[in-house]
């Protein structure tokens, strides 16, 4: 409006400006401290309590009683004994046994014989004769020669071994049976085998040799 007078600006008190500046500075400082505290608080582990103390450690185990071992509680395994190998088959008087190319049967035994033969042709024993009557059968497919001497042996209870007396077989058998007999397949010969033993000796076993060219065991007959 022409001719109007513009009012002069109002002056603030001189003390108000410093006061406002101080208040603003204090607000900025407080806000900054709060932000820093929040950041530091977030970096603490979740397990840590708000009081700032670490959780107490788990107390050590005081039970000193040892736990039983599994090996002691389990029953000890039973010992197993391996079966013993079967021994040789035992034969007796009257049994058929295999010895080499022949099948033998012991029919009977008699000891205490001083001589064999007759009053003109005879053979006397050094001690006394034990006579073993046997049957010899050829069980192969060809003829074989049987001779008691070297094929049949005998033992007494003391373990002494006696060979057959071939000369006594000549005098103590009809037609010298048992001394170099040629026996055809399937045929058999019955003969006496004599053993010259000390007087009073009794035989315990008779053994039939299996032969040199075989892995078979000798046949032993208990008398």
In brief:
The chain is an alpha+beta fold and 223 residues long. Helix content is 17%, strand content 33%.
SSE inventory with pairings:
Layout: H1 16-42, H2 70-73, E1 91-92, E2 96-99, E3 102-117, E4 122-138, E5 144-146, E6 152-156, E7 161-163, H3 166-172, E8 181-183, E9 188-197, E10 203-208, E11 219-222
Parallel strand pairs: 1-11
Antiparallel strand pairs: 2-3, 3-4, 4-9, 5-8, 6-7, 6-10, 10-11
Describe the structure.
By secondary structure, the chain is an alpha+beta fold. It has a domain at 91-222: Immunoglobulin-like, CATH 2.60.40.1240. It is 17% helix and 33% strand. A 5-stranded mixed β-sheet has the order 1-11-10-6-7, with no helix packed on it. Strands 2-3-4-9 form a 4-stranded antiparallel β-sheet, covered by helices on one side. Strands 5-8 form a two-stranded antiparallel ribbon. Strand 2 (96-99) and strand 3 form a beta hairpin. The protein is flat.
Features:
223 residues; alpha+beta; Immunoglobulin-like; five-stranded mixed sheet; four-stranded antiparallel sheet; 3 helices; 17% helix; flat
- Biggest sheet descriptor: 5 strands, mixed
Counting DSSP E segments of at least 2 residues, the number of strands comes to 11
* CATH fold name of the domain at 91-222: Immunoglobulin-like
Radius of gyration, in angstroms, nearest whole number: 61 Å
Identify low-pLDDT runs. Answer: 43-51
- CATH architecture type of the domain at 91-222: Sandwich
The CATH top-level class label of the domain at 91-222: Mainly Beta
């Amino acid at each position: 409006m022409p001719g109007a007078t513009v009012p002069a600006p109002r002056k603030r008190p001189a003390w108000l400006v410093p006061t406002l500046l101080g208040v603003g500075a204090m607000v900025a400082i407080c806000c900054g401290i709060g932000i820093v505290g929040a950041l530091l608080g977030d970096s603490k582990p979740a397990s840590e309590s708000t009081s700032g103390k670490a959780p107490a450690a788990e107390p050590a185990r005081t039970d000193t009683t040892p736990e039983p071992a599994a090996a002691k509680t389990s029953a000890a395994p039973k010992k197993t004994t391996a079966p013993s190998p079967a021994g040789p088959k035992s034969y007796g008087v009257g049994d058929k046994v295999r010895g080499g190319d022949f099948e033998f049967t012991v029919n009977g035994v008699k000891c205490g014989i001083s001589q064999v033969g007759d009053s003109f042709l005879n053979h006397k024993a050094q001690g006394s004769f034990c006579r073993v009557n046997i049957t010899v059968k050829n069980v192969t497919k060809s003829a074989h020669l049987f001779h008691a001497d070297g094929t049949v042996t005998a033992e007494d209870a003391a373990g002494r071994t006696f060979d057959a007396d071939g000369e006594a077989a000549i005098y103590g058998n009809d037609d010298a049976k048992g001394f170099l007999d040629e026996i055809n397949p399937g045929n058999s010969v019955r003969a006496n085998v004599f053993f010259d033993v000390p007087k009073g000796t009794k035989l315990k076993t008779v053994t039939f040799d299996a032969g040199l060219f075989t892995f078979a065991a000798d046949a032993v007959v208990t008398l």
